[in-house]
Predict the structure.
Amino acid sequence: MLEKSIQGITITAIEKTMTSLRCLASAVSYQAAEISTILATSKISSPSFAEDGGVEYTEAGPDTDSVLRKARNELISAAQDIIRLAKGPTDEILTLAWSVSLGYL
């Protein structure tokens, strides 16, 4: 069975499909810390909403590109999952339906 430990919480492959809000929040926190560490190591400031807070991830260089890309993808995935889980099935379906009807999807 596949297992991954994030901040002391072990997630198995089966649990991944039924992840709790706490597990997802830990995953988001862990991946955000990983990204911050990679950026700091590459001497790139962390992203922010400040006027000069935009980050070009390509500046990290080819050595860290795949690691950074993986951490970003896992952060984005966990963030999207936590939003869907927090919304619940009805709100998620309604959001998708409204998006389709308005032509956003």
